[in-house]
Amino acid sequence: MANTQKFRSHESLNVESAADWQIQSAVTVDSDGVAVNVSSFHQVHLMSDNDFYFTFNTTGTDSDISTSNDLYLKGGDTIYSLKVPRGIGNSVYLIMERKGSSDATVRIILA
Known about the structure:
It is a single chain. The protein is mostly beta strands. The protein is built from one helix and nine strands. The strands form two sheets. Strands 1, 2, 4, 7 and 9 form a five-stranded antiparallel sheet that branches. The radius of gyration is 16 Å and the shape is globular. It starts with 8 loop residues before the first helix and ends with a strand.
């Protein structure tokens, strides 16, 4: 009997492979923070020139950043890949706020 399954289960669900690849305009992350709508994507790929805090939320405001509790990413040549959480709501935003006194320029690819 022939194997008629075209894709394996993780390929069919598009969990580890991206159906879309969108290069975004670089954003300036300052002390006011910035929100990027990532609702339609599985992963966010980031590279920044300076350190910045990040979190995910459903409102698109930077008021949810907690500099004492949220994680931060180091600036430099490292490319970070974050999976977009699905359990927090229908609309998901990546919220970023600079860590130090200098603004961060963040390059973003949504996949």
